[in-house]
From TrEMBL:
Gene designation: Neb_5
Record-annotated membrane-spanning stretches: none
Identification of the protein by name: NEBU protein
Gene Ontology terms: cellular component: Z disc
Any one Gene Ontology molecular-function term assigned to this protein's record: actin filament binding
SMART domains given in the database record: NEBU (SM00227)
Organism: Himantopus himantopus
One GO term of the biological process aspect: cardiac muscle thin filament assembly
Keywords: Actin-binding, Repeat
Superkingdom of this protein's organism: Eukaryota
Length: 242
């Protein structure tokens, strides 16, 4: 079914001078970057010849000199109206800073020869101070002070080795604490310990019942013939239903 159509598709021929083809070519030429910069590339290939005394060159140099002079004097122009003046050079911060910088520079130049030559000192190896320093180093040296003994190899069944082993066992912390092994697991009541006694004392100090006595617990007998008691009795009789 599609065989005839496929054959017709391969036999279609478009004329190169149709309006659509011409319009497409014109659009391609308009949007082509290569054609857009072709004239500029050809002009660059030709080169240029510009003399040093040409008017554009002289104008550019004059503009550069004017801009450079303006930038050089820009800070000065900004500070023209702000400078008040000082009574002495010590009160002027700029003059003080300049004097300080000059002093540092002079000190650096003054010490330059010393710094250049301080690492080039040659001392004889047999000088008195060098020999004294060597002797002092030998005296305070830990390597020369300690002379480690020879590591002797002893038989394990010698009497002195057996005696030393027994003495070491007696002084050993593990052997020393082995007598307390029988105490492990034995119960112990905390009554009477330091922490318990301390807690009881703190509780007694903080107990308000022991610190304060309640008024109802105090023995007090009121006087029966005081005016307020007599008045209370009269009021009770007047208000009594009986």
């Amino acid at each position: 079914y599609t065989e005839a159509w496929d054959a017709d598709k391969k036999s279609i021929h478009v004329m190169p001078d149709t309006p659509t083809i011409l319009l497409a070519k014109a659009n391609a030429a308009n949007v082509s970057h290569k054609l857009y910069v072709q004239a500029w590339e050809e002009a660059k290939k030709k080169g240029y010849d510009m003399r040093a005394d040409a008017i554009p060159i002289r104008s550019a140099k004059a503009s550069r000199d004017i801009a450079s002079d303006y930038k050089y004097k820009e800070t000065h122009e900004k500070q023209k109206g702000h400078y008040i003046g000082c009574r002495s050079a010590q009160e002027d911060p700029k003059l003080s800073w300049a004097a300080r910088a000059m002093m540092l520079q002079n000190d650096r130049i003054y010490r330059k020869a010393y710094h250049d030559s301080k690492a080039q000192v040659h001392i004889p190896v047999d000088a008195m101070s060098v020999q004294a320093a060597k002797e002092c180093q030998t005296l305070v040296s830990d390597v020369d002070y300690r002379q480690y003994l020879h590591q002797w190899t002893c038989l394990p069944d010698q009497n002195d080795v057996i005696h030393a082993r027994k003495a070491y066992d007696l002084q050993s912390d593990n052997v020393y604490k082995s007598d307390l092994e029988w105490l492990r697991g034995i119960g112990w009541l905390t009554e009477g310990s330091v922490d318990v006694v301390k807690a009881k004392k703190a509780q007694e100090l903080l107990n308000e019942r022991l610190y304060r006595t309640r008024p109802d617990e105090m023995k007090f007998t009121s006087i029966t013939d005081t005016p307020d008691v007599v008045q209370a009795k009269i009021n009770a009789l007047q208000l009594s239903d009986v």
